[in-house]
Structure formats: C-alpha cells, structure tokens
Model the fold of this input.
Amino acid sequence: MREDPRPPSQSPVDPAERYPVLASRIDVRSEAFAQNRDANLKVIAKLDAALAKARAGGGPKYNERHVEAGKLLPRERVERLIDEGSYFLELAALAGHEVSGHATGASVVGGLGIVSGVECVITASEATVKGGAMSELSVVKSGRLSDIAEANGLPSVSLIESAGADLPNQSKIFVPGGRGFRDLTRRSEARTPTVCLVFGSSTAGGAYIPGMSDYVVMVKKQAQVYLGGPPLVKMATGEETTHEELGGAEMHSRISGASDYLAENELDAIRLGREIVGHLNWKKQGPPPRPRVEEPKHSSEDLLGIASADVRIPFDAREVIARIVDGSRFSEFKPLYGPELVCGWAHIHGYPVGILANNGILFTACGNKGAQFIQLCNQSSIPIVFLQNIVGFMVGRKYEEEGIIKAGAKMINAVSNSTVPAITIMIGASYGAGNYAMSGRAYAPRFVFTWPNHRIAVMGGKQLAGVLDIIQREAAAKKGEAVDETKLGVMKQMVEGQVEMESDPFFASARVWDDGIIDPRDTRSVLGITLSVSHTLPVEGTTRWGVFRH
Done:
C-alpha cells in the first residue's frame, strides 16, 4: 500500500524544484572566454606552486630528519586522523607566503575535517619549520582557526609538537599569543570539546595548550610538556633533571595527571584521538540538508572563462550562480529593481541559501534592496552567500541627493546585525565600502574565500593615483605655485604600484585577510563544506536591527 493516498500526479513536489533554472548565455568559443580561461589558469598555476610550498614544510632536509626520528610528518598525522575518504579543507594555507621572516603556512597546518563522523577544526604544528615555533602570523592564523571553531560550535583537535614562541620575535607574539589559551577555556565553558594530541615538545606557553584542553593524549618517549626545560630549571633552581623526568609522557600520565591517555606511538595517539571524538555523543543542532541534491546544469569548468582576469571588466553574476547552486535553480528577488545587485534563493548541496551577488556598482536602489533581502533571509533563518565583485557605491551630486549614503548605511546595518551564517566569496573586485556592504572580513562572515583574480583595496591603483593628482594640483593652485610634473608623476607611479601590489590576492591571503584562495571550479564544494559546518549550531535569524534612516 502506498503511504501517500493521492494519485502519482499529485505526489508532493519539493518547492525548491519549482525554482526557475538559470539559462546560460556564455559563448565558450568566444575570444574573451578563451583569454579569461588562459589568464585564470596561469594564476591557478601560481596558486598551486604556492600551496606546494606550504605542503613542503621545512623542506627536504628537515622533513627527512623528522622522518628519520621515527615520526610522521604533520600532514600525515592529519591524513590519518580524518575519516578515510573524507575531506580536509585547509584554511589560511598561504599565511606568511612571501612575507619576510615567515614560512608559507606560518608553521601551522589548519582546516576542517571529519573525525569519527564529526566535523572538527584540526590544527597541527608544522614541526619541520623551526621546530614548530610560532611567529606572529602563526598566532594570527591560530586565532582565526579558533574563531571558526567558536562561531560554528565545532570540536577541535590539536596535533602538537612545537617549540613555543619564536623567541627572537617574542615582542610581536607575547601579548596576542595569550588569546589562544583564553579561547580554549571559553570553548570548554561553551561545551565545545577540545582534544590535544602531543607528539613532541610543548614548552613554556605551549605547555598550556594541553593544560587547557579537555582531553589530552601524550606519546610515550616523545611528548615533553613543561613550563621550563632542564636548562632553565637548572639556571633558576640549581636542580638537575632530564627531559623525561621533568615533563615526559609517562610522568604526566602516571604522576601529574596532565595527560589523560598514554599512547604507545604516534599511530596509537591518533587512534585514541579518534576514539575520544567518537564518544563525544556529538549532534548537529542545525536543520539537515534536503535529501536529494541536484548537480548544476552547467559545468564548473566554465567559471575559468566567465571570471574576468581584469577586474575592471564586468561579468554576469548569474552565470556564476548557475554553476554553483543545485540544479542551477534560482528564485530571483526584485529582478527589475536595483538590477546591479542580484538577490535570490537557491540550494547548495541541499542547504537553503539566500544569495547576494554584484552585477555592477551599487546604486541607492541596490542598498535598499540588499537591506530588505538580508532581513527576509533572517526572518526565515536562511544562511546568506555573498558573491563579491564590487568597485563600491556610486558617487556624484545626483546620487548624494537621492540619499545613497542612507541606502548604503541601511545595507551595512543589515549586514552588521544579521545573525544567520554568512559566507563570502570574493570573485572579482572588492573595493571601498562595497567590501563592507557585501560582508567583508570586518563583518564577521563565518568564512571568506577569494578567487585568484580577486583584488582588494580602498580603491583601484589608477583611481587612487588620479585622486592624489587632483589633490596635489588643487593644493598647488591655492598656494599660487606651479606643479612639479616630474615629482608628481613619480609619486603617482609609486602609489599605483604600491596599491597594485597590496591589492593582490596573494598579498591579502598571506596576511590572513581571508581563509584562502580557491580554484573557482571548487567553489561549490567549498560552499557545501562550510554550509555543513555552519549548521553545527542552530541557524537562527533576527528581527532586531539598528535605526534605518529613511
């Protein structure tokens, strides 16, 4: 007997399957498509080379020394910790890249992975780089990973083998570094478990990482956890002792109680870590995704030809949406009003989302439309995806009279006070207040990723140089002086070059302004993972807002 008494023609239809399917108007044989694809592939090759540098750790010499000591490399530890066949989405992989005094990756491997069926934030000391010593960018990256664990209510697993702070740079590390210990205790108070597996040295301030974690595993004859090593103890007290006597795994497991589990070796420590996560009785509190997931009707490969290599050249955001949402289905909101801001509803890997995507500069109508749409997503507790490709808000007398400041403030108010998970993908330009209105890093989206063609700054280099040119000429006119054209030309050239360098996506990612540069073809997968972890906590919108000017 059928459970549904209605005839087959009247069987229930998922409302999402009634959403219109976006058609594609891209000519994959056009010259512009080919040029974009070639340019994007070149930047992706640069990205791959940078990521390879991060994966290389300290290089062959130090990797070989580490392996010869009978230890697994940090990334091997991560691979063995996560469930077989599951993902590991690395975050801030390029932190420190080409920054003087820093290794690519900033001596920390971090990301999202599944351990015993539970989505976790995983961090591992890159022990082959200065013994895993922490630089100031290591602290920034670790803090970002901690933010992600806290905002999404994720258990965390730390794989520790670190010499602690990079002492020659202690002045840049000491004060902000203390935040990591505070965050561990706060997550414990919030009933978000923290697990620490100690594979080697965890000295001085680093000793507090296991000390403040909820569960601690130490590897026999490898883990050494103490506030001060034997040389410091002898200098301070005159006492002579060995590393094992002072802070070895067996001492902490049998005498001090700082260790909860004594592992026979590294593989045993990883087994114990998986066992601990397995008995957390962890349950996600957010709504589950739709059981049936449609792949997009259009190929993600096309994104390489769609995305303009030159951010000054616009492209249709709907072509991007059509390649990342389920079934390429998109229910657009107010399509005729403020068309430069595309808003609407879709699903990604079964999760409902509201999407705001730029199709040009933001006008007054766009600000009003965006603010209303964000309110509607909160009313229905629907997460928001921002696709940023924005040069900012329109300027000029006409637009000021229309109240563009009020409209922009209204949208920023909505972004600031929204409580549903927000995920931002920067797919082109990210300039000025447009970055703010489209949920840039300062507005605490759960995650921020960029495409390799991305540029971020107050404004473009040519525009900034042009503004300075006008200011200098006006200043000279007020003084009745002639403009030194040579000097002004050199200054403009220097400013433009500096802005061009500092707006580069690799410059930004190296300083942890985002959570990573991704291949555009991976956008849908990255969104699926981050939406899933965002549903670890309840998804709840708000109806509370600041004052909207009218």
